[in-house]
Amino acid sequence: MTTWTYCPECATPLESRESGGRLRPVCPNGHFTRWDNPLPVLAALVEYEGRILLARNAAWTNGLFALITGFLESGETPEQGMARELKEETDLDVERMTLIGVYEFLRKNEVIIAYHVEAVGTIALNDELAEFRLVAPHRLRPWRAGTGYAMADWMRARGLDVEFIDLPAPATRPLATDGTLT
User: Fold this and answer.
1) Which domains does the chain have, with CATH numbers?
2) Is the Cβ–Cβ distance between 68 and 128 less than 8 Å?
3) Rounded Cα distance, 28 and 8, in Å
4) What value does the CA radius of gyration of the chain take, rounded to a whole number of Å?
5) What is the rounded distance in angstroms from the CA atom of residue 73 to the CA atom of residue 59?
């Protein structure tokens, strides 16, 4: 996360003041308050031909696969954004979409809106994604962070056993800038 030390309008050093019930960086001249609101990220547990689609971001170490994710853009609903991200990244279309839940991801100051998406079409990855795997639902192994909790909730709702895996520490593995593997 960015640490703000100067006002972006007048370059005056920011002061820590109470605003909205919290201490926030504030311009003493009244030009700017850093609210630090979390960024909305969309995630899809994509069901395709009875299996779950997991993808590896091109910037990641081999062997790390996750849900399809992306940022919500201005002017779209979360459902529209998820359908757009799915199409952009995999060329698949949404047949049905249901909300799994909303999850915090404090480390990246994000709120994840996770969906179960039943998708149709032919998988064709864009250049953000290096490869994909189709995994039987009972073989999924969620991780203990953001979208991993969404996967676990989806599995529990279907009566599947949940066995978490531990991922390498964040400092030792690359993180995508699009919220993937959150």
Assistant:
1) 1-36 (no CATH), 39-172 (3.90.79.10)
2) no
3) 12
4) 19
5) 22
Q: Give me the residue label for tokens 């919290």.
A: 22
Distance CA 40, CA 51 (A): 27
Residue 166: Cβ within 10 Å count: 8
Rounded Cα distance, 6 and 9, in Å: 9
Nearest alpha-carbon partner for 150 in 124, 120, 114: 114
> Phi and psi of 173, rounded to 5°?
-135, 145
Quote the CA–CA distance of 12 and 32 in Å, as a whole number: 10
b/e sequence 34-68, b meaning 16+ C-beta within 10 Å: beeeeebbbbbbbbbeeebbbbbbeebeeebbbbb
Which two three-digit tokens encode residue 157?
Answer: 């709702």
Q: Show the tokens assigned to 64.
A: 């790390």
Query: Which H/E stretch holds residue 153?
Result: helix 146-157
Tokens read off for 160: 């599947």
Query: What are the φ and ψ backbone dihedral angles of 43, each rounded to 5 degrees?
Result: -135, 145
Give pLDDT tens digits for 78-134. 999 999 999 999 999 999 999 999 999 988 889 999 999 999 999 999 999 999 999
pTM for the predicted model, two decimal places = 0.81
Coil, strand or helix at 50: coil
